[in-house]
UniProtKB/TrEMBL annotation:
Binding site for Mn(2+) 2: 241, 335
Record field: transmembrane: none
Pfam family, one: RtcB
A biological process from GO: tRNA splicing, via endonucleolytic cleavage and ligation
Subunit structure: Monomer.
UniProt remark on cofactor binding: Binds 2 manganese ions per subunit.
Function: Essential for tRNA splicing and maturation. Acts by directly joining spliced tRNA halves to mature-sized tRNAs. Joins RNA with 2',3'-cyclic-phosphate or 3'-phosphate ends to RNA with 5'-hydroxy ends.
UniProt KW keywords: GTP-binding, Ligase, Manganese, Metal-binding, Nucleotide-binding
Name recorded for this polypeptide: tRNA-splicing ligase RtcB
EC number: 6.5.1.-
Amino acid sequence: MSKSTYDADGITLEQVREYVWEIPQEGDMRAPARVLASEALLDEIKEDKTLEQIKNTTHLPGITNYAICMPDGHQGYGFPVGGVGALDAENGCISPGAVGYDINCGVRMMRTNLTYDELQGHEEELVDSLFANVPSGLGGGGIVEAGVDTVDEVLERGVEWAVENGHGVEGDLLHCEDEGHREEADASKISQKAKDRGKNQIGSLGSGNHFLEVQRVTDVFDEKVGEAYGLEEDQIVVLIHCGSRGLGHQTCNDYLRKIEQQHQGLLNQLPDKELAAAPAGSQLADDYYKAMNAAINFAWVNRQLIMHRTRQVFERVFDRPWEEMEMDLLYDVAHNIAKKETHEVDGEQRELFVHRKGATRAFPAGHPEVPKAYRDVGQPVIIPGSMGAGNYVLRGGENSMDLTFGSTAHGAGRLMSRTQAKDEFWGGDVQQQLEEQDQIYVKAQSGATVAEEAPGVYKDVDEVVRVSDALGIGDKVARTFPVCNIKG
DNA sequence: ATGTTC
């Protein structure tokens, strides 16, 4: 019996096993590419340049095992969103396009002990107060408007800076990936222009798909893990999705231009200029890594300030201290990062720059980098769906280290461009429908943003999560549904 | 994603 194949207009994928497809190595590819998806998801993934892009990434020097496209993959700048590339940290390279423009775009979930019953009737007051108190939209205006010295501290110290300056508590550090601080950060590697863009954006949501959402837990699929995560049905939680704003964007741009200029030889070997990479050990690889780590710290501070401000808003709306409402950080996960990690490859321990772009770290139970509180069950993984579909909490699955360098998907993944979305939807209509049909209260700076983020522009998050769960890379723990949503 | 076309 011949192997099952999937023909995607010029690219043929061979099925390795259920939900695992391979683009075999050929020509100048340095490894195969793998796509983790159902056929239903492949039907959507093949519609843009995702497959060509994941194939292109296998040309990067040092690519280890295979390049991986997650079930929510879609076209990105050079490297697909939903892509994982582990590049040898000694003989490989590091690629800003494989991290993404929005460095450490990510999500954090905060628990409360409120129930949906207690919140009902307060939705409009809450959404208005959140919208008034959490800066959003394009341009400047943050919770903190910083001077140069403060920006440098934020860049080098991450969430430690926030906690020391009254924007959180010690416990917040423990429930953040890397405890909210990348040691290798060096603020001097971030340009003045990037700092200028970021200094008045510390504590701001931004625009696009970024949001703050109050949600209710509708399902707990795994009681044991749910208990470890402090989640139960009807509980209110808050999900914050944002990144490093103009600072991260400028940093990505700065280094792409430098790398294009200084590493033309490597660039010429790559099928797409947008994959520009700095060879491991070069000055620029070192500088970019330090700058990226600083931008990662900036994004964590951004989410920390927004979370702490949200506590204060809840205090006013529900008239009691946030501690009494047990508003603790469940976890903060990065969606756009690279990190030097040690992984077992062919029985050998190897140092790799694991690039996760639109992909989530998903370390399994027992991994030393999983916070103590969750070590026995695995790292929390938070997957936002669209604002009408709901969201998932997963836990790092036991197969993630073998299959995906400890990673899984990051969201639903777009189905259409922002331009197309605005042709098909009208923000006001979307807003009205969500409120009338699903009692979801949305407030945004711009109607265009609501249209761009309409539920219909996203893939089916249930299907993405089903594949992650079936592969054992990220297992279903709980599902949440929106109550209030604010965005840019 | 993004001082939304360096």
